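Hi R.,

As promised, here are both runs. First protein below:
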Amino acid sequence: MAASKLAVGVLGASGYTGAELLRLLEQHDRVQVEVLTGDRMAGKQIGEVFPHLAMQKLPKLVKIEDVDFAALDVVFCCLPHGTTQEVLRDLPHNVKIVDLSADFRLYDPKLYHQVYGHPHAAVELQKEAVYGLTEHYRDKVKATRLVANPGCYTTTAELPLVPLLAEELIERDPIVIDGKSGVSGAGRSLRENLLFAEAADGFSAYGVGNHRHAPEIDQCLSEFGGGKVEVSFTPHLVPMLRGIFATSYVRMKDGVEVQDLQERLEEAYADEPFVHVLPPKSLPSTKQVRGSNHCLIAVHPDRIKGRAILLSVTDNLIKGASGQALQNMNVMTGLPETSGLTIGPLYP
């Protein structure tokens, strides 16, 4: 007898992360997409919004207030930051939630208020949230009903740093993270700086010294680092469609060599299906993970003695968003973790 399928709803299906999630869910044989929301697009077929999804048999987009959440097993929330808490706080307790916004990533509601400029609207629900960096929070993800899916910059930076801090191979300070993102990381809304004539043939920094992902990175690294970590993080916009490249500069503990970092990362991710440590001094590229749920990591010695450089790449819409969300859903529901995620990178 065939196993029953999970009834899934995607809130905010008219954005890039929603579209990528639907593309991945098409490959998953244990889910049935029952609900799609997109308030401004309500009443339309998804193929009218994203023609590349027209071949999939999916329900029409509806407004959130028209959704019967009690009929769903899992909800993916792809709504904009600041809009998710009020939607999710009253959902039935049987519904498992993967939130792709930043609304539940920060444990401290006061810090959330400080970073995002408005009070947290679901403080009680926040207490249940588990940070969804799957490879390092897997057991907690299994036991929760609400996963706060990490951001794309944070995922890409944290994966190489967490094992090294946990084993006390690198110092907590300084850690400098130079991040670069494709334009899809900013979402689908119309913004002047994302117009082709503005973004093409250029390279620009933004959020310098105060990007909202920095406290998320600090929180995660501090958990594994045995003390307070505050990183220097600068993001940059690169004129490519998708991809995240994080270059992290670290200082090693006394007596630690670059080879020790290499060996620790290889050990940490030896059995992980989506995180791959390349041979020493490799040069990963965002194209090598494009369209996939994979992260590539490379370790390099710095010319300055006692320091090292970590390179990591992901696809911001997959491992940095929708793919990791599906990975977390699989863990939450006891399904094989790679279900719906075995698609390889697109190249060139």
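And here is the second one, sequence first, then its structure tokens:
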Amino acid sequence: MGFLDRGLEIKTPEQVGAMRRAGLVVGTTLEVLRAAVRPGISTRELDAVAEDSIRSAGATPSFLGYHGFPASICVSVNDEVVHGIPGDRVLADGDVVSIDCGAVLDGWHGDAAITVAVGEVPAEVSELMRVTEEALWRGIAAARLGGRVSDISHAVETFVRSAGTYGIVEDYVGHGIGTQMHLPPNVPNVGRPGRGPKLVRGLALAVEPMITLGTCETDVLDDDWTVVSSDGSRAAHHEHTFTLTDRGAWVLTAIDGGESWLTALGVPFGGLD
């Protein structure tokens, strides 16, 4: 492992392999949580499901105790954009819930998020979820060795702007990841291409667009964690951790490594497994 370009953490292939193992814990846990989401379940119960899944795999929840965060996952409902604290809230039909999950295994972190509909949701909410997830994958698909971090940002923004009138949250961004959950560089969801650090082998990034049905403005609730849309509009959040190999992108937190999405978008899949 080495450092270059203002302190970026560059992993060896073996270390990237270790991150893949952590990423699979996260990806598997999110699929367990997706299946668990239903009307009548509390956000605290989802947190318990997540912690059991993570610990059963021999990993530790990254979020638990992070700067005092009191739970193993973030669960954000409806107008909550990110960092929602699990508790007594019971999910109801028509809710939309974003679940952010992190795990550390053998000192290496994985971080990903999904947004799930609870029962039937309005068509505009379903479309918001679709646009947010595809924006994530468009961002990853834009990454190339020798390119720049803002190539990802530009691809996310361009796709969202082309899809309709949405708020792209700018105050919360993606990030580098590895021996810590949050490392340089920041990965914004808006920006011009060709800027920021160079994309090189061994750099791992978490890309995470947060999109609302209203404006990009947000507020933080009195719990000092939960971020909500200022106008009360619904929000969605999708995230994956990925790296670049000589062949292309390898999504470390996706069960299939990202192969299905990347192939559908017409870009090479760089996975090693």
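A quick note on the second one: The chain has one domain: 2-264. Let me know what you think.

Best,
J.
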